[in-house]
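Problem 12. The chain below contains 198 residues. Write out its predicted structure in token notation.
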Amino acid sequence: MRRRFQIVAVTLAVGFALSACGSENAQSGANTSTTATKSTEGTKGNGMDMQEAADRADSMLDAVLKKIDPEVQWAHGQTTKGSCDVTRRRTVMTIVSAERRQGFLDQIEQFWRASDYRIKAKNVDEQFPAVYAVSKDGFGISVSIRAKGQAFFEADTPCVKESKVADPTAEPNGPAYKGVYPLPSPNVRSDYWSAAAS
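Solution.
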């Protein structure tokens, strides 16, 4: 009788322990499940792979550069791949003077707003301003002014299916600087964009 009581007591104790453990795991599992669902939606929801997403990023960069008036000269920057995303880059080789910088950024921001992109953030620093936007399908795009007043564009894809990614196919409207990294400082003068630049 005593032995039977001991077995029942041990069984109940183990049952309570497992129940508590299961409860903790269930709560933690709920969070994990939500995260996993979000990740899966980001990765597979739109059916894109990395190459298709890179092509979309290229088209966004093509579109904004074509809208800058007067035209600026640009070259491809480096493409980088994350675990499930791609970043495409373009570097402006035209000298944009400090006096023209805000007008340059305003043109770009207006175009992105007209394209129904959401402006996520703006850096209003006088020396290194930047504008960050996101499209409705989750692609990020930005323009930033960095050292020596050079303008850089970046387009970031959302998380997509893994695949190989080829180099961009768009031809730069100036020297390609293939294999050159980092790219030179801006060296093309424009009657408009470079006005008042020394």
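Discussion. The radius of gyration is 26 Å. Students who got a different answer should revisit the alignment rule from Section 12.3.
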